[in-house]
Every structure is written in C-alpha cells, then in structure tokens.
Design a protein that fits this description.
The protein is mainly alpha-helical. It folds into 2 domains: about 50 residues, no CATH class; about 55 residues, no CATH class. It is about 65% helix and about 10% strand. The chain has 6 helices and 2 strands; from the N terminus they run αββααααα. It has a two-stranded antiparallel ribbon with strand order 1-2. Helix 4 crosses helix 5 and helix 5 runs antiparallel to helix 6. It is globular and about 45 Å long.
C-alpha cells in the first residue's frame, strides 16, 4: 500500500483518513482508473493508513517538513531513511554519519526555506 500512496502523491493528490472515511485530496489530478482502483481497495488502504508504521512515518515527515520549512517530498525521503534499518554491511557509525549528513544537507540546502 505504501507504493500506492506514493504513486497517488506523485500525481499531486493524496489519500487521507477523515475520521473513519477515506478521502482523496485533489482527486481530479488522478487518472480515472486510479480513482476506481482506490475505491475498490478502500478498506485495505484505510487499514494501511491507520497502521502504526504509517502514522509514525507521516508524523516524522510532517515534523521534518514544518520544523525544517522544507518541501514535503524532501521530508518524506528523509523520513524513509530515518525509518529504515541500516543496510547490511554498513557499520552503525557509517549509517549514523550518512543520516546526519543527509539532515545537514537538507538544513543547509539553498532554497529550503523558500
């Protein structure tokens, strides 16, 4: 379901839970077949959006976006790195350095606050 939500967002739309109902934001930006697929799979999508893993990811991305005043896409990519386990063969020190460097690059990026 994460791939589906990412794909929807790539069109400039989003799928959110509004109470217990699934809502498509900017649905007009999606191809007609996408809206049909979402409707057909709404129960599974809602379960995914309610999952602890997704809630944690969304919260982390929102904090990065708003506290860092950076584009949502950057915040989501960084949140994905922060949520992942370190890759096999990479030391804890190297993984920590990588995450710290990514965070610094986002903080110092020209136009990040624009």
């Amino acid at each position: 379901m994460a791939d589906l939500v990412d794909r929807v967002r790539s069109f400039g739309a989003n799928i959110v839970l509004d109470g217990s109902a699934l809502r498509i934001v900017n649905g007009q930006k999606l191809p007609a077949q996408a809206r049909g697929f979402i409707a057909k799979n709404s129960k599974a999508i809602a379960e995914y959006l309610r999952s602890d893993e997704n809630v944690e990811f969304e919260e982390r991305a929102a904090i990065i976006e708003f506290d860092g005043n950076i584009p949502r896409e950057w915040a989501e990519q960084f949140a994905r790195f922060l949520s992942r386990a370190k890759p096999a063969g990479v030391s804890e020190i190297d993984w920590s350095w990588f995450l710290t460097t990514c965070g610094r690059m986002i903080d110092e990026a020209p136009g990040a606050a624009a």
